[in-house]
Amino acid sequence: MSRREAEPAPGGVRGGRPGVAVDAVDLGRTYDLGGTSVAALRGVSLTIAAGDYVAVVGPSGSGKSTLMHLLGGLDRPTSGRLAIGGRDVATLDAGELATLRNETIGFVFQSFHLLPRTSAVDNVALPLVYRGIGGRRRRTMAAAMLGRVGLGHRLDHRPNQLSGGEQQRVAIARALVTDPVLLLADEPTGNLDSVTGESVLGLLEDLNASSGVALVLVTHDREVAARARRQIVMRDGVVVPPADDPDTPTVVPAARGGPEIVDPAPSAEPRRASGSDSGHPFGGSGGATGATERRGEIPAAGKRCGGSIGAGPGGGS
Ligand SMILES: Nc1ncnc2c1ncn2[C@@H]1O[C@H](COP(=O)(O)OP(=O)(O)O)[C@@H](O)[C@H]1O
Ligand SMILES: [Mg+2]
């Protein structure tokens, strides 16, 4: 991973079309499993624009995590074209892709992925190491970010001294400490109880609204998905128009108080291919963006707005 000091840009995309964070055209990703090939993605085109809030839904195995890994530069497509922050990933070597990821993307996963023997503040400071920022300043920036997620009083706790909700807040702080353009959250509430999950989701939405970071959220909860500005519906490795999606209601429910939608079986965290240049996912941070897929778009029913970030006492769980 190359080290260079990169000041976060003021909430914009650093290259390519203005206001576009990620642009994908006809993306394919095929895994080779001992002679058998598994086509996890079969031609997905979408654009994520600055500040957007997009939900990705679809059954387990439909390619959601594969898509997230590609959009975040953790993996490369086997076909199609992908530009992150205006840069075609096919033109980047592994080190350049890692740097781009560090400057542009934040990741949050279902299972937190914190370093177990490392304090909250040092977990959050980790992506700043790759930027060559000095220790004292890293700690100051990480502590400030933990304050924004409501954990200013937990700086020196290790993950096993924190609740699940608090651990996910640490992971969110780590994803955002570099001021990324795009935050990719793959079932971030999947390991949390519903009350804690709601609190974490509210935090993500507040951060999206206040900092302008684009949020792409994988969820199997249709009510949660309806809160996003748009939905991408995936089936068998492709984005399907909502009309072809048996789970999509004809009328998209209101953000709150709409009809109850039964959510399908939860999907497990995906296996990941070794051998992609998936360096360290937490080297990244970025700015702001939104997504516009060319097919399969469901307009937002409503956008949750505002609120203070940081939850305050009791906001964490
Ligand atoms: N590393 C891998 N090697 C082989 N097949 C994989 C790998 N990761 C995912 N797959 C397969 O690709 C398809 C899509 O998986 P994934 O993107 O994890 O789906 P989702 O996140 O929607 O549950 C599934 O059939 C899955 O089994
Ligand atoms: Mg998945």
Automatic annotation (TrEMBL):
Compositionally biased residues, Gly residues: 304-317
Biased composition range(s): Low complexity: 239-255
Single annotated GO MF: ATP binding
Keyword Manganese listed: no
Keywords: ATP-binding, Nucleotide-binding, Transport
InterPro entries from the UniProt entry: AAA+_ATPase, ABC_transporter-like_ATP-bd, ABC_transporter-like_CS, ABC_transpr_LolD-like, MacB-like_ATP-bd, P-loop_NTPase
Lineage: superkingdom: Bacteria
Domain ABC transporter: 22-261
Residue span of region Disordered: 239-317
Protein name: ABC transporter ATP-binding protein
Lineage: Bacteria, Bacillati, Actinomycetota, Actinomycetes, Micromonosporales
